[in-house]
Fold:
Amino acid sequence: MMERAVSRHGWRSTLASAVFLGTFLSTAPSQAESAGYLVPAPAADNVQAKPKYECDAPDAPVITLDTQSKYRQDDARRATIDEEAEEAYSEAVEPLRDYGKSLVRIANAYVKSSPKNSAAAACALTWLDHWASANAMTDLRSRQAHFNLGQALGGFALAYLQIRNAPGLDGEQKKRVESWLKALGSQIVGAKDVGKGVSGRNNHRYWAGLSATAAGIASGDKRLTNWGIDSARIGLAQVTPEGTLPLEIKRGKRARDYHIFAAEPLVATAELARSQGVNLYAEHGGALPRLVNRVVESLEDPAFFEKAAGMPQEPYPGDGAVPPHRIAWLEIHESRHPSPKVEAVLGPKRPVASSGIGGNTTLLFHGVD
Structure:
């Protein structure tokens, strides 16, 4: 993609952003390495001799999904929720969300255990295999259903990456799960490569990219992995000198919220790309750190986004604060680029977790629960 020439004013803005960014993001070494997503096999003397885990029956597989948008169709910004549509949407996706939350919770239990509880890993694999054997999420009957898969598959694959090196796992189950993850990743790529328009460049693409990257690494498919990393680059190429994403600014009163939502898969993909020798943080002149910086600055005060979008920003329910699960991805960023400002944000909210990016990121990237 050809990059635009930067005007004198844009050059000054970029330089100012870089100087400000330097005060925000430390270049000091990251904190002590924690588990991350790619949990290695434990040492032989770090495995429970008689592991036990109360493994509930897996949730019923969701094979067919036909969801519709929860936003009013007469709202071009897709920012105003239709209450009836939202109720129908929530009911349709609840089984998918419940499965994802339960799955990463089980995988996280294995990561947290010390010595390692291989029974928890076997339970997570059983849950994955139950859906894999049923070809779950393969009959998608709407555009929105494909978006839902794009947001869910990453969590499935990241759960698998956490437990796949546990000792004693059933080899046939692992093969079925990896084949299923690869098939779903290919399904996402096919839908996005055919689809045109905004969703090929906005947060939908970044979530699809995270899912493809995670599924590709889990199944050993470099094509999927590379497609996913390139999807993140589509987003990074759009980040302005001020750290915004123009397509998410267009969400009007939800511009701040959609920047938070878009940053989540981009940061998680950057973590996975790091394992492949790719430094997405450095690409496009440090676009990802600029985006993260802009989001962090807006958490307490959305004034920048109010000015950029030309309207007040939608407050969050309750006390108006951003819910902890919406900023769980900051734990990943903080593990690579420690910042007192981010630490101050995360400290009171820990542990933070989001099922779409592997569950408890405090456990995975901060090393404690």
Remarks:
- Residues 103 and 124 are 6 Å apart (CA to CA).
- Confidence is low (pLDDT under 50) at residues 1-32.
- DSSP finds 14 helices and four strands in the chain.
- Strands lie at 64-65, 139-140, 353-354, 359-360.
